[in-house]
Amino acid sequence: MFRRLQSCCRHILNNYINFDSRQEEGEDTLDETQFHKQKFLICGKTLRNSNLPIGIRIQAASQMGLLSYTGGPPAACHVQEYIEDIIHFLDVPSASIEDKMIIIQALSGICYVNNSNQKKLTELGITKILLTILSEEGNSSADTTNLMLLKYWVCYLLSVLSCNNIPFIKSLQNIHTLRTNLETISIMGWYKWPANYATVMLDLLSIKPSNEVCKKDSHMA
Question: Which of 23, 51, 139, 215 shows its CA 20 to 30 Å from the CA of 7?
C-alpha cells in the first residue's frame, strides 16, 4: 500500500507541476548542485521581496517546489531556510484560494520523500493550517468548487508528509475533526487524480504504524 502511495504521489506531481525545460538551456555545463543552489537563491530573493506583488512572490515559491521535486533531496536541502516564508502566504488575508493552492503544491514538491523538510514543515505548525483549510466553507458556488480542489491538494500534501513519517501519522490519529472532514471529502469526485487521497489518509489513520512508511523505491525517478 505504501509503495503504491509513493507512486501516486510521484504521478500527481509529474502531472500538475509544469517544468519549463527552456530555463535550463545554456546551463547544462553547471554542476547540478550549483545549478539548483543558484536557482533557489534567485527565487529566495524574489520570495522575500515585500515590494513585489504577492502573485510574483507566490510564483517564486512555486518554482522552489518544482526545483525541490525535480532535483530530489540534494536540491531540496537548499529550500529549507525559505519554508517558513512560503508557509506564511497561507495566512496572508489577500491570498486567494488559487494562491493557496499554488503554495500547497509547492510544499508538496518541497517535502516529497524528504524527511528533513517534512519535519521542518510540521515544526512550523503546518498541521493546524491544513486542518483549518479542510474545515473552511465557500461563500459562493465558484468559491466552493475552488475550495474543494484546494482541499484535494491538502489531502495530497498530508499524504506526502506521511511518507517515512510515522510520528506525523500518529499525531493525526486522534484528531476527530480531521477524520470527519476526510470522510466528507472522500466521497467527492476525484476524477483525473491517480488516487483518492482523502481515502488514502483515512486508511493511514486507521492502522497502527509499526514499520517505516513509504519505503523509498530504488527505481524512483
Answer: 23
